[in-house]
Every structure is written in C-alpha cells, then in structure tokens.
Write a structure and sequence with these properties.
64 residues; two-stranded antiparallel sheet; 2 helices; globular
C-alpha cells in the first residue's frame, strides 16, 4: 500500500487524522501530512476510510 497526498487540494478538514491518526497528521496550517506511511499496513481499512471521507479528495491510496 502506498499513500499519496495532494497538499494543494487539502482543505484542512482533518478527517484523515480522525480516522487514521497513526498515518496522517496536519501541519501548522491544517494541511495533511503523511506522518507514518508504514503504519498504513497495520490498519488499511482506516486509511481507506480516511481517503474516502476526505472532502477534497486529497488522499489517494494505491494498492501495489
């Protein structure tokens, strides 16, 4: 599993952090950051949910 984020699309809603806090974080402006991409393997359902709930579709989950 690989995660990419489009920081230019992020609106800072925080759904990613609420659903997968081990993987995502927000910078001081509220923009998504991938905190620990390795943690995605531990909870792929939470990561997929975070991507689905992202209102700006800034998160893409690639299942390699």
């Amino acid at each position: 599993m690989r995660i990419t984020v489009d920081t230019g699309r992020c609106v800072g809603a925080g759904q990613c952090v609420l659903n997968a806090p081990a993987v995502f974080d927000q910078d001081h402006d509220g923009v998504v950051e991938v905190h620990d991409p390795g943690a995605a393997a531990a909870d792929p359902e939470a990561v997929a949910l975070a991507a689905t709930l992202c209102p700006s579709a800034a998160i893409t989950v690639h299942r390699d």
